[in-house]
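Posting this for the archive.
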Amino acid sequence: MFKETKPPEKEELYFPYLQELRGIFDRCYVAESYVYAKDGRQIAPSDGITNPHLEITAQGNFSEKLQNNFEYYLFKALSAEKFKPDIMGFVQKKPSSKKEFITVEVKLGAISIKDVLQAKAYADIFNAKFSFVISPEGIPPEKLKIILQYNNALRGNVIPASCLPESSPFRINPLLAKFVPEPFPMFCK
């Protein structure tokens, strides 16, 4: 008999996606990695990463640190309308650099055009440099074709990605390689 595995609930994906993005930003974006030495050796546990600062905000709970960096009243107003990103935060390339905002929308199934537009709205509202919509399935080719045809109107700077924690790494469709900011072209496979 084969054991049937049930698909994950949306809430079960928040923390693994948050951890995945923390690791990517730490290893590939910030000037000085917390976890990795310049030669690639792991020198610290990944749960100690503080740059980027990312939080699960799907339930409307967020720390004072996040409140001080995002427009608090706007977030509360949108939260009352049940319109909020699942994960929010910021990253600083160098300690002296300006904070760059991050928004993440998590989906269970294939990413739709509506999902990309929702993530784009979050990116626009919160002035996010990095905005993601992530699901285990990613974005179907026919939807991606439409999005690329109307790239600025539909996608803006949103990065549709796929990731299935513990079995499939973070990936972005190769057709988006020339449109995504560093360090994300390396994930376009």
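The first strand starts at residue 53 and ends at 56. Helices lie at 10-28, 64-67, 72-80, 113-125, 141-149, 151-154.
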